[in-house]
Design brief:
Length: 223
C-alpha cells in the first residue's frame, strides 16, 4: 500500500548509482560555468586594454575589480569540482564494496547449502565402495587377460621351438637340447664326432671300408 503512494523502496546499489549520477551532472555544470567565466575574463581584459588606451581610468578600475572577482570565482569552481570528484570517488568505492558484499553473501549461502547437503559418512561409504569395485575390476581384467592368452596359445609352438633349437645346435656341432640340459654344470657338451671316428675305424681295419679308400689312406700316411 505504501509503495503505491511513495513508490518502491530503492536498494543501496540504486541509491549509490543515483547519487553518483547527480554528482557527475553537477561536475559537468561547474565545468560549463567555469568555461563561461574564463571566456568572460578574456572579454574583460580586452575591454580594460581598450579603456586604458582611451584614458578612462575610472572605468578601468571598476572592470579590474570585476576581473579579480571573476578569477576568484574560477578558482572556487576548481576547488568545488575537486571536492565533488572526491565524493564521486567515495561513492564509486562504496558501490564496489557493496557489490563485493553481495557476491560474498551469495557465495556464503551457496556454501552453506552445499555443506548442508553433503553427508560425510555417506561420502566415505561411497569412496570405500568405489575402491572395492575398482580392485574387483582389476582382478577380473587380469583373469580375462590370462584366459585370452591361454586360449590363443598354440600347442605346437613349444615342440616347434625345441626342434628349431636342436637344429641350430646340430649345425654348430653340439648335441641336442636334451643332452645340453643334462650336462653337468661347468662342463662342455662334447661336439659330435666328424671325420676322426671314421679315420679311427679305417686304422682298425674295419670291414665296412672300401679297399681302394684304405689304399689311399695308406699312401697318405707314407707321404
Amino acid at each position: 500500500m505504501l509503495e503505491a503512494f511513495f513508490g518502491k523502496k530503492k536498494t543501496p546499489a540504486e541509491m549509490l548509482r543515483e547519487n553518483k549520477r547527480q554528482l557527475d551532472k553537477a561536475i559537468r555544470e561547474l565545468d560549463r560555468e567555469r568555461m563561461s567565466l574564463q571566456q568572460q575574463e578574456k572579454k574583460t581584459v580586452a575591454e580594460i586594454k581598450k579603456m586604458a588606451k582611451e584614458g578612462q581610468m575610472d572605468a578601468v578600475k571598476v572592470m579590474a575589480k570585476s576581473l579579480v572577482r571573476n578569477r576568484h570565482a574560477v578558482t572556487k569552481m576548481y576547488g568545488l569540482k575537486s571536492e565533488l570528484q572526491a565524493v564521486s570517488l567515495r561513492l564509486a568505492t562504496l558501490k564496489s564494496t557493496q557489490a563485493m558484499a553481495d557476491a560474498m553473501r551469495g557465495a556464503t549461502k551457496a556454501m552453506r547449502a552445499m555443506n548442508r547437503r553433503m553427508n560425510l559418512p555417506n561420502l566415505q561409504n561411497i569412496m570405500r565402495e568405489f575402491e572395492r569395485q575398482n580392485e574387483r575390476m582389476e582382478m577380473t581384467s587380469e583373469m580375462m587377460g590370462d584366459a585370452v592368452d591361454d586360449a590363443l596359445q598354440d600347442e605346437g609352438e613349444e615342440e616347434e621351438t625345441d626342434n628349431l633349437v636342436n637344429q641350430v645346435l646340430d649345425e654348430i656341432g653340439i648335441g641336442n637340447m636334451t643332452e645340453l640340459a643334462s650336462a653337468p654344470v661347468g662342463t662342455r657338451v662334447a661336439e659330435k664326432p666328424q671325420a676322426a671316428p671314421a679315420m679311427a675305424e679305417a686304422e682298425g681295419g674295419g670291414g665296412g671300408i672300401d679297399e681302394d679308400l684304405q689304399a689311399r689312406l695308406d699312401n697318405l700316411r707314407k707321404s
